[in-house]
Write a structure and sequence with these properties.
Layout (H helix, E strand, L loop, with lengths): L4 H16 L3 H13 L4 H19 L1 H9 L9 H6 L2 E5 L3 E5 L4 E4 L1 H17 L3 E4 L9 H12 L6 E3 L5 H14 L5 E4 L5 H7 L1
Parallel strand pairs: 1-4, 1-6, 4-5
Antiparallel strand pairs: 2-3
């Protein structure tokens, strides 16, 4: 098996992201506190209880909503933007690797939400669709699974399939190659609201 630097970087970023976000980050604080109790019982218990408090705080609906408000700032697309756009770009959101009912792999529920909205936009605007997502796991690129879902489940044709990207920056860079070749300069970008600021900056 050959070493792939791009894939290694992808997994490093994913691992760090998971470790610094709930629910794992507070659990790591709890674990550190419990390990510390053998040497410094009082400090260890304080740290563990801080982790418990952080877990409860960060999992409360009010806290989650407050944290998301700062990220979900992109407005819903309006009629003027639809008239100016030349294509729809849908970003991958992951896949289910064990889906025997779909022949092996399929898109996950996050990707399905994006595809559903992209299908609505495509029907409303008549614009061509590009799907973007590579192969961080498994054998089938996310974009291929996204294409299958759009065409088979939503009856929306896919014009471009970008299937080598591993992150948002690559989504943008590799999609731009195909779109520029077709003369496309303005797009409707489909992703989740929490991901939109980063995706907009990349595109």
């Amino acid at each position: 098996m050959t070493f792939d630097p791009a894939l290694a970087l992808f997994w490093l970023k994913k691992t760090v992201s998971i470790m610094v976000q709930p629910p794992l980050a507070p659990l790591l604080v709890i674990a550190a506190g419990l390990l510390l109790t053998g040497r410094r019982r009082r400090a260890g218990l304080v740290l563990a209880w801080l982790g418990v408090a952080a877990t409860l705080l960060l999992s409360a609906p009010a806290s989650v909503g407050w944290l998301l408000n700062g990220l979900e700032t992109a407005p819903v697309v309006d009629a003027a933007a639809m008239r100016q756009a030349q294509a729809i770009v849908v970003l991958g959101a992951g896949k289910r690797r064990h889906a025997p009912e779909y022949g092996g792999e399929t898109v996950n529920r996050w990707a399905l939400e994006r595809l559903r909205y992209a299908a609505r936009l495509a029907r409303t605007t008549g614009l061509p669709v590009l799907v973007s997502g590579g192969t961080p796991t498994g054998d089938v690129p996310e974009a291929v699974l996204m294409q299958a879902a759009l065409e088979e489940d939503f009856r929306v044709p896919v014009r471009w399939v970008e299937k080598v990207s591993l992150d948002t920056q690559q989504n943008a860079r590799f999609s731009a190659v195909q779109l520029s070749a077709a003369g496309v300069r303005r797009i409707l970008l489909v992703t989740h609201a929490v991901h939109m600021p980063r995706a907009q900056a990349a595109f």
